[in-house]
């Protein structure tokens, strides 16, 4: 059995795309996943499954949300090992001193190189970013709420690749939950 972390994109933002975490747990359990647990109200879950891949899980969960909750919600799934690798590869170790101001944007695939090239680091100072293979690390020393970079890092999906951001506290908590 493999442990997975699930990140739903764009739910529970004000009155749009409302998804109760009890409903999300029930949906994942009905899909046959084990050890289902949620964290916070922003669409984070961990669960176990066997004989599948993150990409297949993304498609199955998105389809179930559309069918059962009548919402069009994109999601990103990582194995516990992939999530651990994201944490281990943190390029801002020692620099990002406030985990609430440090984000990881999880992408469903490799971002388009043109989208990456379009970001000019000088436009976002003092905020900084670094890319992993399917992640973007975003350090916002003055806070996320006023950050232009935090907004630019998760644009509306224009293609098949979607991104959703979580702060460092949430990322590390989800890894701990996959290990529990």
List keywords for this structure.
4-stranded antiparallel beta sheet, Alpha-Beta Plaits, alpha+beta, 180 residues, 24% strand
Briefly characterize the structure.
By secondary structure, the protein is α+β, with helices and mostly antiparallel strands.
N- to C-terminal distance: 14 Å
Low-confidence stretches: none
Which term fits the overall shape? globular
Mean pLDDT: 93
Provide the spatial order of strands within the biggest beta sheet.
2-3-1-4
Report on this model:
This protein is α+β, with helices and mostly antiparallel strands and 180 residues long. It has two domains: 2-80, 2-Layer Sandwich (Alpha-Beta Plaits), CATH 3.30.70.1280; 87-179, 2-Layer Sandwich (Alpha-Beta Plaits), CATH 3.30.70.1260. It contains six helices and eight strands; from the N terminus they run βαββαβαβαββαβα. It has helices at residues 21-30, 54-69, 80-88, 113-118, 148-153, 168-179; strands at residues 2-8, 34-39, 44-49, 75-79, 102-107, 128-131, 135-139, 163-167. Helix 3 crosses helix 6. The chain starts with a strand and ends with a helix. The model has no long low-confidence stretch (mean pLDDT 93).
């Amino acid at each position: 059995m493999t442990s997975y972390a699930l990140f739903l994109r764009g739910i529970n933002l004000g009155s749009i795309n409302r998804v109760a975490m009890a409903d999300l747990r029930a949906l994942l359990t009905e899909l046959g996943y084990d050890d289902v647990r949620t964290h916070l109200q922003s669409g984070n879950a961990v669960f176990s499954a066997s004989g599948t891949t993150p990409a297949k899980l993304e498609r199955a969960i998105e389809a179930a949300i559309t069918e059962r909750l009548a919402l069009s919600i994109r999601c990103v799934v990582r194995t516990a090992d992939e999530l651990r690798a994201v944490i281990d590869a943190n390029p801002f170790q020692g620099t990002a001193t406030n985990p609430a101001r440090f984000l990881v944007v999880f992408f469903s695939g490799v971002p388009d190189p043109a989208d990456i090239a379009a970001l000019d680091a000088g436009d976002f100072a003092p905020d900084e970013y670094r890319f992993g293979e399917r992640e973007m690390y975003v350090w916002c020393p003055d806070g996320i709420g006023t950050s232009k970079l935090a907004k630019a890092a998760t644009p509306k999906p224009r293609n098949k690749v979607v991104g959703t951001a979580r702060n460092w506290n949430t990322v590390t908590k989800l890894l701990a939950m996959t290990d529990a």
